[in-house]
Please model this.
Amino acid sequence: MTVDEYILSHIDQEPAHLQKLNRDTHVMCLYANMCSGHLQGRLLKMLTRMIKPKRLLELGTFTGYSALCFAEGMPEGAELHTVEINDELEDFIRQRFDESPQAGQIHLHIGDAEKIVPSLGGKWDLVFIDANKRNYLDYYNLVLPHVNDGGFIIADNTLWYGKVADESAHDAQTVGILSFNDFVAADNRVEKVMLPLRDGLTIIYKKPADS
Model:
């Protein structure tokens, strides 16, 4: 048994509908490795349980796995807005959301997050950034002013296949992640911790203005 297998055998089981979604993603979609999967999905649900967000924003839906995990953990009456730029995935995503017990709490938006998010208005208790890696810092600067004091941002893929530690990696995605990581590390408006889970997960806490 590998360490990964041991971990998965000692956490909550992956719900059947998410197992099916994971399989469907790998059979029907390109870049299926972008699907959050069992361990990260259970962590996202647990973090949502702990934070108890009333309003949650996700940038980068892909096939909806992470959104469904957030929805599982949301308190009653909470709402999740999730934004996906790939319109070819819309029917696939909507079918899975419609089958969810939390269907009425999930709002899917298809298009460019930098155009859609300002139109949504309001404040956010939790934001999950998992969209175009080139634009991570733009997304951060877009959403942080609208995160409630004491709220959280979670950023996925912040180790980017280990390329962040490879000085020879200069592709646009790696440069985008590096810029984001460096900016957040130096930002005294927030507390942050980076976890070596899967492809890197950074949890960011927005300090109250008077702290």
